Amino acid sequence: MRELKIVSRKRNEMIDITRDIQKIVNEEKPGAGIVIVYVPHTTAGITINEGADPSVQRDIIETLKKLIPESGDYHHLEGNSDAHIKASLLGSSVTVIVKNNKLILGTWQHIFFYEGDGPRNRRVYVKIN
Amino acid sequence: MRELKIVSRKRNEMIDITRDIQKIVNEEKPGAGIVIVYVPHTTAGITINEGADPSVQRDIIETLKKLIPESGDYHHLEGNSDAHIKASLLGSSVTVIVKNNKLILGTWQHIFFYEGDGPRNRRVYVKIN
Amino acid sequence: MRELKIVSRKRNEMIDITRDIQKIVNEEKPGAGIVIVYVPHTTAGITINEGADPSVQRDIIETLKKLIPESGDYHHLEGNSDAHIKASLLGSSVTVIVKNNKLILGTWQHIFFYEGDGPRNRRVYVKIN
């Protein structure tokens, strides 16, 4: 298992980690298999989406904010219930296929760490299977 | 890794691909393991849900449309931000257990490709691990 | 593949199954690998989130109820379309990394079975790969 350190700068932010994951695959040289990219946090998630136009990230972040507002009828007292809910909707891991030591992503696909309660120091676990 | 070609007919559509995935498992004969069904697109997703009553698919599609409307305060100029957001909420892959060369699904479970910006020619990657 | 039996007590409920999954890993002793925790139902899901403060579970459940109400313009006649939709949003499986026969979860992470149409007798499949 490998570990990746991430530093988020905003409360809500999508951070492109595709290159970092590919770099780990380059180093581990599994040939073929699958990679699990796992977020060990409960106020952050992970998602695969378009990496070409940053407006897509902006639209995802703003739509999630509208659906699950930061302030609401929440009982959890830390002010980040919205981030917990987003974490469950996006999920805590993604699985990507590897072939010839390359992540098999679609043309527009990038892997994004989704920060829901930043800025914070975060980690991602990477397991090749 | 195997590839499946899908042709969608509507803008929003759930296409049952369970038989196609089982057919690939029949051909690959892994015995036991897991199957990753991966969508390499950013305006489509994949989900497991009820296959018996088509009303369930209709209710999923219409509820997602209501939550994430096609038109809204979006910055991405291609008119498909809703589809990008749905792709992240549903996810880009599902993992199914295989035993004796059979997908181990629940009684009502089918695997659906979720089209969010059709009609289009689409692909799904299938990896047995 | 191992199986876990779950008895839910409410219509909407998050049931912590972390210990049960760790117990299966203790018995199977894979050393290192991944665990797939799979829900074979279409009105229940699975998610990883905070296990320390029960208010987080309450906030997730109540926010999902508000976003996807039990009663609405649904065509499926069994009165549980909301549960089907939540199942697709949360997902039917989670993947967790195992190292030295331990689930590698974050400090606050627990694995929850998400009941959307209880009370019912439910099952979860556990596959170590």
Any descriptors?
homotrimer, 129 residues, alpha+beta, Jelly Rolls, three-stranded antiparallel β-sheet, 27% helix, 36% strand
Q: What do these coordinates show?
A:
Chain A has one domain (2-128): Jelly Rolls. The mean pLDDT of chain A is 98. Chain A is 27% helix and 36% strand. The first copy, chain A, has 129 residues and is an alpha+beta fold. Chain A has helices spanning 18-28, 54-67, 81-90, and strands at 2-7, 13-16, 33-38, 44-50, 93-99, 102-103, 109-115, 121-128.
Q: How would you briefly describe this protein structure?
A:
Three copies of one chain form a homotrimer. Chain A is α+β, with helices and mostly antiparallel strands.
SSE topology sketch:
3 copies of one chain form a homotrimer.
Chain A: E1 2-7, E2 13-16, H1 18-28, E3 33-38, E4 44-50, H2 54-67, H3 81-90, E5 93-99, E6 102-103, E7 109-115, E8 121-128
Antiparallel strand pairs in A: 1-8, 2-7, 3-5, 3-8, 4-7, 5-6
Q: CATH superfamily of chain A, please?
A: YjbQ-like
* Order of strands in the sheet with most strands of chain A: 1-8-3-5-6
Structural category of chain A: alpha+beta
> Which quaternary structure do these chains form?
homotrimer
In the CATH scheme, what's the topology name of chain A? Jelly Rolls
Largest beta-sheet details of chain A: 5 strands, antiparallel
